[in-house]
Automatic annotation (TrEMBL):
The keyword Cell division applies. Transmembrane segments: none annotated. This is Cyclin N-terminal domain-containing protein. Residues 1-31, 387-411 are annotated as: Disordered. It comes from the Eukaryota. PROSITE patterns: CYCLINS. GO terms for biological process: cell division. Residues 247-369 form the Cyclin C-terminal domain. Residues 1-10 have a biased composition (Basic and acidic residues). Its main location: nucleus. It is found in: Nucleus. The keyword Disulfide bond does not apply. PANTHER family: CYCLINS.
Length: 411
């Protein structure tokens, strides 16, 4: 046979052997993949068996050889006595109950559009999420509490001029107080700019047709320009970390009143309560928020305490879920303000051109609140003097007769 043909045969034979070997490997890989796709657990079991076989082959002992695996005893092989858990003393704060039952039960009726417990729990969470600092004035040595009173009273007047809602004012008051708590050494010449910018933000959030920025600049009588208001608007929102939706005290009052006067129809979205009664209680809140000490209490407690001064504790417990211990301090603090409101009387329900009759109670009005606040402070002084001469605890004043309270819904 020629030498060339022999070489050709050898080459062909080697190529066939290589192709058979590669085909076998590819088939093996495909088979492994198929097994894994069918059942991953079987593939893992198969791989474990292979590893065990390899391990046994590697460590198979020959005659006369010593195993490389040895057991080294511990120095102290004594059995320890079990310790009784009852003898251990754990700190009381080591464990916490993660399943906390809400203290305030839901007073909401059955809702057709949501679970009433979920809605109520969300309201409670929001009330706790927005915290205020009652001592924020200490961060501003050049400011006095009276300056805050003057500013908020002026914002109340601006709200009435532009027919803004009560919620708009209370949002602005919240934004102002929380922003001031984040700052230091604010001068009094900046207060009006901060206040009007807070109202500008609140109006854009709450009002359907909010006033334009030039209208807010106009009421400052040249003290604040449009550019300054727009710049301060962004600064305030950044400092508040864009948390701009608190549940204000006027919102809580609206909820409490609606639950108190809810009829059998179950229509919770349409106000069922008397507008005059709502306005009278809202005016008490208007005076109270002028005092910086109102920041000590949550918005829900403020609204419940205001409602208490015009109704009864039984009704307040029914509509708010609060117990007397939850609101006792706030109720006593609010006594002088309630006495001032009763002395001067309510300003009543005002009418505004272009405002529907069923929405009049929601429009923020302005009254001589600073005069009413002075009367409340005078009652506080009388209470302090009485507490110094008498062993009766401070803040415990005789409530008015039942006949002087407005008639509320029967619980």
């Amino acid at each position: 046979m020629p030498r060339k043909s022999v070489k050709t045969d050898l080459k062909t034979t080697s190529i066939n052997e290589v192709s058979k070997e590669s085909t076998a490997r590819s088939r093996k890989r495909k088979a492994d993949v198929a097994i894994y796709l069918q059942d991953p657990d079987e593939e893992v079991t198969e791989m474990t068996k292979k590893k065990q076989c390899v391990t046994q082959a590697c460590w198979s002992q020959a005659p006369g050889c010593t195993s490389p695996c040895r057991r080294i005893p511990t120095p102290d092989d004594e059995v320890e006595e079990p310790v009784a858990l009852s003898g251990l003393a754990f700190p009381q704060d080591t464990f916490q109950n993660l399943c906390i039952t809400p203290v305030r039960s839901s007073p909401l009726p059955v809702l057709c559009w949501a679970n009433r417990d979920d809605v109520w729990n969300n309201l409670l969470k929001k009330d706790k999420a927005y915290s205020r600092d009652v001592h924020f004035m200490e961060k501003h040595p050049q400011l006095e509490p009276k300056m805050r009173v003057i500013l908020l009273d002026w914002l109340l007047e601006v709200c009435e001029v532009y027919k803004l809602h009560r919620e708009t004012f209370y949002l602005a008051q919240d934004f102002f107080d929380r922003y001031m708590a984040t700052q230091k050494n604010v001068v009094k010449t900046r207060l009006q700019l901060i206040g009007i910018s807070s109202l500008f933000i609140a109006a854009k959030l709450e009002e359907i047709y909010p006033p334009k920025v030039h209208q807010f600049a106009y009421v400052t009588d040249g003290a604040c320009t449009e550019e300054e208001i727009l710049s301060m608007e962004l600064i305030i929102m950044k400092e508040l970390k864009w948390s701009l939706s608190p549940l204000t005290s006027i919102s809580w009052l609206n909820i409490y009143m609606q639950v108190a006067y809810l009829k059998d129809s179950g229509e919770v979205l349409i106000p069922q309560y008397p507008q005059a009664t709502f306005v009278q209680i809202a005016e008490l809140l208007d005076v109270c928020v002028l005092d910086v000490k109102c920041l000590e209490f949550s918005y829900g407690v403020l609204a419940a305490s205001a409602l208490f001064h015009f109704s009864s504790m039984e009704l307040v417990e029914k509509v708010s879920g609060f117990q007397w211990s939850d609101m006792e301090e706030c109720v006593k603090w609010m006594v002088p303000f309630a006495m001032a409101i009763r002395e001067v009387g309510s300003s009543g329900l005002k009418t505004f051109k272009g405002i529907p009759a069923d929405d009049l109670h929601n429009i923020q009005t302005h009254a001589p609140y600073m005069d009413w606040l002075d009367k409340a402070y005078s009652y506080q002084l009388v209470d302090v003097e009485r507490s110094q001469r008498s062993p009766v605890p401070s803040g415990v004043l005789t409530p008015p007769p039942s006949s002087e309270k407005p008639e509320m819904a029967q619980s």
